[in-house]
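Hi P.,

Sorry for the delay on this. The queue was packed all week, but I finally got your sequence through. Input first:
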Amino acid sequence: MAGSTFGKQFKITTWGESHGAGVGVVIDGCPAGLSLSSEDIQLYLNRRKPGQSRFTTPRKEDDAVEILSGVFEGKTTGTPISLVVYNCNQKSKDYSEIAACYRPGHADYTFDAKYRGGGRSSGRETIGRVAAGAVAAKILKELGINLTAYTKSIGDISISTLDLAEIANNALYMPDADAAAKASAYLDTCMQEHDSSGGVIECIIDGMPAGIGEPVFDKLDADLAKAIFSIGAVKGFEIGDGFLTSFAKGSENNDAFFYDENGNVCKKTNHAGGILGGMSDGAPIVLRAAVKPTPSIFKAQQTVNRSGENITLEIKGRHDPVIVPRAVVVVESMAALVLVDALMENMSSRLEHMIEFYNS
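Then the structure:
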């Protein structure tokens, strides 16, 4: 199976299946000397693990990470970093009744057409992404670059305030307590009706210098789009005003430039979302991911089995009524991986960048 490796300079390869012994990632290209512990990575994994609220699958997994290589005495060595999380609560019997049919909204059919078994399409595959993203985010923090992702909307309920301190105070990771309460009530209704919901995740990146990204096929926004779209549940992506720009006039959409008191080039607005011509422009990068409703629902659905029959399916087992809250850290992690890779690639764009790097 191709396609399990991501990145150029800062490269990751995820491995493992949802009901195998474990899942993990190998990170190649991490510079030596970065302070790194399993606790640094665990903080990120704890944000996506199951069983944390009534809105997640009751599957209980500690998702405890082990560092197998690439770190010695608390610092990275420059060699490949191998990370593993063992599966402790897999129940294959939950899937025995659906093994012979194609679940609506799932990748069963396409995996069957190409491979054998769809374990790599499970949400547990994102563990490797998040573990690697924790390392990337730590590198970015050393450079003064910070990422903040949160739930912007659940169903048709959207935030109206941006209180970043509130994100950790509710199970939906929404920066708006009132919206979180309304969304929770909406999800309770979905669960009572044996249904699920989708939503939108927003990520803001502060501190990114101007000029990062390549202007033709490797545009920063294009790389971010690929990274976010590679998350299984994502069906839409935006940078800045996104699709709203199609309704705007040029005079409304253009971001006016000005010099600040320190002589730095700044923008009065940020409709472009921090990226112009495929390169960062120094303003905050703002991106959004549209996440589809959880396809595993308890309602009866029409499908087919592998014997050529039309059947009615009622899915049992342990499933999230909404994927969005657990996917917040996945979006943040994939964005971090793209940014670190782009920053490393940028070192070769100009001679002074290389001199600065080797003299640092």
